[in-house]
Amino acid sequence: MPTPRMPAARHALRVLALLAEHLGPVRAQTIARDLGIPRSTTYDLLAVMRDEGFLVHYPELGAWGPSARVARIGSRVDAATRIERLGQPLLDRLVRASPVPATAHLAVLSGVDVRYAGRGSGRRSPMTVSSVGVRLPAVRTATGRALLAALDDAQVRALVPHDADLAGGEPATRAALGRMLADVRARGWALERGDVDPAYGSVAAAAIDAVGDPVAGVGVTVRLDDADGADAWPVLQALVVDVAHDLSARLAARRSQPTTGGRA
C-alpha cells in the first residue's frame, strides 16, 4: 500500500517525536533545522499544535515543549495493555501453528522480573504458571532472557549488579549470565528447559519498538516430552522469531532490524 502524502500530519508527528527526545523545551529554529522543515512552516505548525493543546510555548525561552495533554494520551492505556491488544492475534496464531500442544505468552520486563501481559492457549495446551499478571525472575524464563539479551551490557549490569541477585538457579553468576545472553543475541532466540517447571520448556524472542528498545518477549511453552519426541524445537524457534518480528512491525519497528532473544 502506498504511503499517504500528508506532509502537515507527518511534520506534526515528527515534532512530537523530536520534543520527546529532549529533556527541556526546544527552540523553533532548532526544530526547523533538525527536521528539515522550512522555518515559516515550522512557526505555523507550532502555533496550530499549541492552539489544539498539544504543545506549550515558553515565551521567555523562545522554546516549545509537549503539553500535559500529550502525556495523558500516552498514559490512558498502559504499555502492557497496548502490547496485549496488538499481540493477542499473534499469540493465537502461534498456538495454532505449533507442531505440538503449546501455550503462548507475552511478557514485559518489570525490574528484574518479567510480568506476563498476554496469553494464548488451545484445547490441549499445557497448564503453565504464565497467567496474565504473574511475575517471575527474568533470568529464569525464556521471555526474560530474550528481553535481557536485547539490552546492552550496561543495562543488564544495572539490573543484575551482583551474583547474589541470581541465587537459586542457573545461571548462577553474572559471568555465566553474560555468556548466556551473548548466545541468545547470536541465535536470535532464547531457550529454557525445566528452569520454571521440570516438565516444560520454552523458547522466546524479543519484540522491539520504533527506537530499537525491547518491549515484549514472545514465548511458547510446551511439554518437554512432546517437543523432544516430535523434534519440534527448530519449528518452535522459527515461529517465535517470526511472531516477534510481526509484533515489532505492529509497534512500528523497522522490520530490517534483527529480533534478539528467546527463552524456554
From TrEMBL:
Residues in IclR-ED domain copies: 69-253
A GO term for molecular function: DNA binding
Keyword field: DNA-binding, Transcription, Transcription regulation
A Pfam family annotated for this UniProt entry: HTH_IclR
The HTH iclR-type domain, residue ranges: 6-68
Protein's GO biological process: negative regulation of DNA-templated transcription
Superkingdom of the organism of origin: Bacteria
PANTHER family listed in its UniProt record: HELIX-TURN-HELIX TRANSCRIPTIONAL REGULATOR, ICLR FAMILY (PTHR30136), HTH-TYPE TRANSCRIPTIONAL REGULATOR RV1719 (PTHR30136:SF35)
Record's protein name: DNA-binding transcriptional regulator, IclR family
